[in-house]
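Sat 14:20. Reprocessing the chain from the morning session after the first attempt stalled halfway. Input below, unchanged.
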Amino acid sequence: MRLPVLVFDIETLTDLKAGAHLYGLDLPQQDLEQALYKLRRQEAGTDFQRIALHEIVCISGLWIDENGVMKLFSFSRENNSEAEILKKFLSIFDKRNPTLVSWNGSQFDLPVILFRAMYHGLSAASLFDQGEIDTQKRYNNYQNRYHHRHVDLMDVMAMFNGRHFQKLDDIAHLLGYPGKRGGTGYFIPEYVKNQQWLELTSYCEGDVLNTWLIFLRWSLLKGQVSLEDHRLWTQATIHYLQSQPQQNEFLAVWRDMSQHTDFTVKDFPSSSI
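Finished this time. Tokens:
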């Protein structure tokens, strides 16, 4: 496993202002969202908006440095505009070149970041350069599907076959991890509307933590960490989360879910919590 590692996830809302401009709609605010959903259903048969109309309200990440030190963080609309969230996230790549890890990041998170960065007139060369600036990135960049500078776990675990794509929640549960703990992305608009920022960031961070745990298991499968190293990383994660009050529920659900597989039952020895 090449360190440092950055596991990340984003949460979004429909950008009503951009949607109204794109479709030429002149409607009251309370009618605009439903109109955009109706138009989307007509053109694609789904409520899920096109990538460019996803406005970022939170980016969460787990940073693991070369010494194995972990830091869980979130940039949200509580204190930042969307442009400020993007600037903070993108600045990480200006300073470092981590192994980037996501679930469906190639098809959703990174394209959203690309469009929204362009929307705000931001530069993100360190993330989107494919060798035009740094020639080494021609063969090892964050966009190429088969490079491992960005590991999209949904893609690699499906062996790059869309028919085999799985949901993060399902795989987390299957492997003995918490999953979404009863929540879904449908709550994001309510969290933002009601200014429930802790709920928003805890939810996004939960997806990051599930992705990290699955990444550890994938690294074990690939032989990039040994069984003993996997155990040590797991225990280090548990120890770190014990110092993160906003993830008390994640830790408690993980302990319960771990009892469902012979492998994860060892994550929580009786004396560990």
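Strands lie at 5-14, 54-64, 70-76, 99-102, 150-152.
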